[in-house]
Amino acid sequence: MRIVRLANFVTARSGGLRTALRELGAGYLAAGHEPVLIVPGARYSDVDTEQGRIITLPGPEVPRMGGYRVLLDRRRVAETLRQVRPDHVEVSDRTTLRWIGRWARQHGVPSMMVSHESLDGLLRLFGGGRWTADRLNARTAADYDRVVCTTGWAAAEFERLGAGVARVPLGVDLDLFSPARHDPALRRRWAAPGDTLLVHCGRLSAEKQPERSLATLAGLRASGVPAVLVVAGGGPLRPALQASAAEQGLPVRFVGHLRDRGELAALLATADVALAPGPIETFGLAALEALASGTPVVASAASALPEVIGTAGIAATTDASFAAAVRTLLARPDRRAAARARAETFPWSASVAGFLSLITADGAVMLGSTGRRRRA
């Protein structure tokens, strides 16, 4: 089966979405399917990779988004779809690619939209109303044969409209992200003996609320905990965060985006606690990678992360409660084993199997209802 996937906001420096697309594509390919990924870039390219075929179409940069691009040329995207001739379409975008669901229906191709972000949450953060999110979500649910969410939290904005939603959690590379990656030399680089090493891994943008990680560090140090913070990730808020850390005299190391996944895995395995303050995370791959590395997580109680971290972390709501949660986790002697055990319930193999079960079911329904599939 040729599974054609489309997404925006995918670059060499992007995080969770890029990881999910790579792992799912590799899983589809290993299962004997033909995955094709269509994404925006600076120029056209068409290459075969370990996750299947990747077609890059020119797309403009979004201002002040750190190099993220979107596909705007509907005619070229539609022509590419006609040439590729999909058996199933999977869209991971809620912005300029929402129309793909209608295109797929017109051409007799089953479709699914994978909701990797909360439209309701984004509008709440940036001043929009729930009615706007409901209206757009209702249109999305009507346009696609299936909506897939990775957590119950993410599904809630569709379910309150009466829309049927399938839930399939994402996964983690349990070989790459492992407690065995703990690196004493790396720890000596970032922390003095006796220091608590915190890590914040994620894009430095408003919806992630990275300033809370700095506030957590400040609160810990004010209470006598000798903590330091390593921030892995880039984004538009980095200059302001660096200025804030310097003004407060906080020991924060900004290491930028770590392209070497082995280096990221070592950092996560070496830290004592990971911070995930984003209030609208629909899953939280970085937090799950921390758990797989044996590092417990303090996460925003407003997000989907409490579903993911379970008892291997603590959900918090305020700067003070984030700092208190770190102290609580540090006092747990089994925290690293509990973190790893929780992550082991999220292998990528289960995620791939879950998505493929939906894709093959959709294909069977389409063929069964029409006797044949109209092709693009």
UniProtKB/TrEMBL annotation:
SUPFAM superfamilies xrefs: UDP-Glycosyltransferase/glycogen phosphorylase (SSF53756)
One Pfam family from the record: Glyco_trans_4_4
A Gene Ontology BP annotation from the UniProt entry: carbohydrate derivative biosynthetic process
A molecular function (GO) term: glycosyltransferase activity
Residue intervals of the Glycosyl transferase family domain: 192-344
The organism's place on the tree of life at top rank: Bacteria
InterPro entries: Glyco_trans_1 (IPR001296), Glyco_trans_4-like_N (IPR028098), Glycosyltransferase_grp1 (IPR050194)
Keyword list, A-Z: Glycosyltransferase, Transferase
Domain Glycosyltransferase subfamily 4-like N-terminal: 15-168
UniProt keyword annotation of Transferase present: yes
PANTHER family: SULFOQUINOVOSYL TRANSFERASE SQD2
Protein name as annotated: Group 1 glycosyl transferase
Annotated organism of origin: Actinoplanes friuliensis DSM 7358
